[in-house]
Structure formats: structure tokens, C-alpha cells
């Protein structure tokens, strides 16, 4: 893990008491980890991971305001 990523994770866990439960979406989205597993080509792997992340983020749309609020300092 890179130093910047480590710093973000440390900040997030230091404030863990500030978070509240968010009701998960009924579906995580149309793209899943299965769309990423087994891809050997690094550029294609990166594209699929990004597509998966966007799918999950979209599924959590009702909570975007709350999640963004957690990341603003």
C-alpha cells in the first residue's frame, strides 16, 4: 500500500465512530468481481476494475451525499 493510500485509510479508521449504517442497495450493480477475475492483461484488468467500481458506486447512489460528507474534512 502506498503512503497516500495508507494515510487515507488511517484517517477513515480514526473517525470510525462518526459513521452510521447505510442500507445496502438491493443489487450491487450489473458488474461484479466475476467480470474481473482471471483477466491477465493489465490494461484490460484496470478497465474492468474501474467499470466494476463505477457500477458499485452507481448502485449506492441514494447514499452519495452521506458518503461524500464522510470524506470532506
Task: Please provide a written account of the structure.
The protein has 73 residues and is mainly alpha-helical. Helices cover 52% and strands 0% of the residues. The chain contains three helices and no strands. The longest helix has 18 residues, at 42-59.
Q: Quick gist of this model?
A:
With 73 residues, this protein is an all-alpha fold.
How can the largest sheet be summarized?
none
pLDDT < 50 runs, ≥5 residues = none
Radius of gyration: 15 Å
User: What's the end-to-end separation, in Å?
Assistant: 22 Å
Separate helix tally? 3
Going by helix content, strand content and strand pairing, the class is: mainly alpha
Mean pLDDT level: 89
Give the topology string: H per helix, E per strand: HHH
Helix content: 40-55%
Task: Describe the secondary structure blueprint for this structure.
Elements: H1 3-14, H2 42-59, H3 64-71
Keywords:
73 residues; mainly alpha; flat
Amino acid at each position: 500500500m502506498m503512503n497516500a493510500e495508507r494515510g487515507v485509510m488511517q484517517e477513515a479508521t480514526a473517525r470510525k465512530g462518526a459513521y452510521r449504517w447505510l442500507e445496502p442497495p438491493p443489487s450491487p450493480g450489473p458488474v461484479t468481481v466475476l467480470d474481473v477475475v482471471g483477466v491477465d492483461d493489465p490494461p484490460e484488468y484496470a478497465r474492468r476494475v474501474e467499470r466494476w467500481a463505477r457500477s458499485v458506486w452507481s448502485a449506492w447512489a441514494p447514499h452519495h451525499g452521506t458518503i461524500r460528507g464522510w470524506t470532506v474534512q
